[in-house]
Design a protein that fits this description.
The chain is built from eleven helices and ten strands. Helix 6 runs antiparallel to helix 11, helix 9 runs antiparallel to helix 10 and helix 10 packs antiparallel against helix 11. By secondary structure, it is of the alpha+beta class. A hairpin with a 2-residue loop joins strand 7 and strand 8.
């Protein structure tokens, strides 16, 4: 069986090294069936009850059947989300008495060696990150033909959930968006110190814990358009910098700054940004009158179609964000 280097993801709580070692090949037919169903893993006795709690499709029957089972010592209790290559479940890790998010390759992706290598490499790289504003794997492995990693569970989910109705939240929610951006910029600044770009920033990559502190997901994975299994949908393209879409220039931190600005636009408005013929996005204030002019100027500078007109560094951006936090009259942020 073809193999790759172990995925050196280490659980900080137990200091246990958990390895991902195998790349599926032709000899793995016994572990992944022709229909894409993973081999059976340990099933919990209350699986039937748990499945009834699971949302309906877009999850397939095979994906729903994992609810109620135990994978890598983690009891799967609910589905959370589905991407192009991965599925995310909510789980309970009894050994550490904690709730986790379990991310695994879907059955189709697990049959593609290139996607498996992408997943393993990203998990290994992300497992080396140590920053309070980044979501990094706590562990991972391969069991019953399923490749998975698990991370801390984020109680308040993604920015897509939290800011979908941003204008109704008024000024308090605008402040929450600003505070969230400060944390994400800090995460990206840390990534820059390790020569890592994100290149896939969008609202679904910004998650919130129980205290509404924002954290960045997906850093250290290959999020480029050429990554195995990548697909550019309209929802994805809306947050890409123009140079990513056209391939008309190098990708740098200025590219991530532009995507972050488009994401900030969503946090302030609850809407996906749409560029006009001159590659400009609307002012957030056109949609949400609670957004102060200072933040509109920041969004405009971050998302300029010309990379040279954007902020030159994360430090410059943080300076303006912190000035806005101090310079505006902010009420108490909602619970």
């Amino acid at each position: 069986m073809p193999q790759t280097e172990p995925m050196a993801v280490e659980d900080p709580g137990s200091r246990q090294r958990i390895d991902l070692v195998d790349i599926p090949g032709p000899d793995d037919a016994a572990e992944v069936s022709a229909e894409g169903e993973p081999s059976p893993v340990e099933e919990d006795e209350d699986a039937t009850e748990l499945k009834e709690m699971t949302p309906p499709p877009p999850f397939s029957d095979h994906e729903l059947e994992l609810v109620g089972r135990v994978l890598g010592g983690i009891k799967v209790i609910a589905t959370l989300g589905r991407g192009r290559r991965t599925i995310v479940y909510k789980g309970i890790q009894a050994s550490h008495n904690r709730v986790v998010a379990l991310r695994m390759l879907n059955a189709e992706a697990a049959r593609d060696p290139e996607i498996v290598r992408w997943f393993i490499a990203g998990a290994k790289n992300a497992g080396e990150l140590r920053h309070e504003d980044i979501i990094a794997p706590l562990g991972g492995g391969r069991e019953g033909g399923v490749f998975f990693i698990y991370t801390r569970f984020m109680e308040n989910r993604t920015a897509l959930d939290a800011f979908a109705r941003a204008p109704e939240g008024g000024v308090p929610l605008v402040r929450r968006a600003l505070e969230a951006l400060v944390h994400i910029v800090r995460a990206l600044e840390y990534g820059q110190s390790r020569n890592i770009l994100h290149l896939g920033i969008r609202p679904s990559k910004v998650l919130f814990d129980e205290l509404w502190r924002a954290k960045l997901n997906g850093l250290a994975f290959d999020n480029t358009l050429s990554a195995p299994g990548a697909k550019v949908t309209h929802d994805v393209q809306a947050y890409l910098a123009p140079e990513q879409v056209t391939g008309g220039g190098p990708v740098t931190i200025l590219t991530d700054l532009c995507a972050l600005g488009a994401t900030f636009f969503f946090l302030l408005t609850g809407r996906r940004p749409e560029r006009d013929r001159k590659q400009r996005i609307p002012s957030p204030r056109d949609i949400n009158r609670a957004v102060p002019d200072s933040l509109c100027r920041i969004v405009e500078k971050m998302t300029d179609a010309d990379p040279a007109a954007r902020y030159r560094s994360y430090g410059q951006l943080l300076h303006d964000l912190r000035w806005a936090l101090r310079g505006e009259a902010w009420p108490h942020t909602p619970k």
